[in-house]
Amino acid sequence: MNVLNQLRCGGVLEAIRISCAGYPTKRTFDEFLDRFGTLAPDVLDGCDEKSACIAICDRMGLKGYQIGKTKVFLRAGQMAELDARRTEVLAHAAKRIQRQIRTYLTRKEFIALKRATIHFQKLWRAQLARVLYEQMKREAASIRIQKHARSHSARKSYKELQAAAVVIQTGMRAMAARNEYRQRRRNKAAKIVQTQWRGFHAFST
């Protein structure tokens, strides 16, 4: 009688009765929660193991399961049903994680591309500024050269004009001197002719 009481208190007799009643699959509460806790993760907090196992079975719509003192007893096919639901949940979670990873990687690539674009734009603006600065320097130098060339050309033209004026003035003075010299010679010759004529006329009379 003592042995029977011990078996009854240990749940052995109940386990044998449930197993014989058509529950081929049994799992301890800890094993059941480790395997199927992902089916209802919200019930794991704040519930004892037995209550959590009952909540999971009820949420999955299992009919006819039994809860012992330390184990969950499932009818034929219920373990496979739970495994199928678990596979669906894990697959959905995996897809969600993959989407999050792709979103993270895409965002990371976008941020890197955006930073690279901003950096390239800064480099391009700096290069463009240098090119414009060099172009402005060349244009300023060209303007200075043109001004210098125009100034040099003006000075050269003025000097050439001044030299031409001097040549013209010198030529005019030389021409005037030659004309004056010829006029003096003509006047002198006329005086000589007049003197000789007077002398000849006086001698004739």
| Helicity range | over 70%
Main pleated sheet = 3 strands, antiparallel
- How many whole angstroms does the radius of gyration measure? 64 Å
Helix/strand-derived class?
A: mainly alpha
What is the chain-wise order of helices and strands?
Answer: HHEHHEEH
Our measurement of the CA-to-CA distance between the termini, rounded to an integer number of angstroms, reads: 214 Å
Mean pLDDT: 82
* Low-confidence segments: none
Number of strands: 3
- Spatial strand order of the main sheet: 1-3-2
What is the overall silhouette? rod-shaped
Percent strand? under 5%
Number of domains: 2
**How many DSSP helices?**
5
Protein name: Putative ovule protein
GO molecular function: actin filament binding; ATP binding; calmodulin binding; microfilament motor activity
Domain Myosin motor: 1-87
GO biological process, one term: actin filament organization
Can you walk through the features of this model?
Helices cover 80% and strands 5% of the residues. The protein contains 5 helices and 3 strands, in the order ααβααββα. It has helices at residues 2-9, 12-20, 29-36, 49-59, 78-204, and strands at 25-28, 66-67, 71-74. A hairpin with a 3-residue loop joins strand 2 and strand 3. Helix 3 (29-36) packs across helix 4 (49-59). It is rod-shaped, with a radius of gyration of 64 Å. The mean pLDDT is 82.
List keywords for this structure.
205 residues; mainly alpha; Alpha-Beta Plaits; 5% strand
What's this entry about, in short?
Residues 1-87 form the Myosin motor domain. One of its GO terms (molecular function) is actin filament binding. Helix 3 (29-36) crosses helix 4 (49-59).
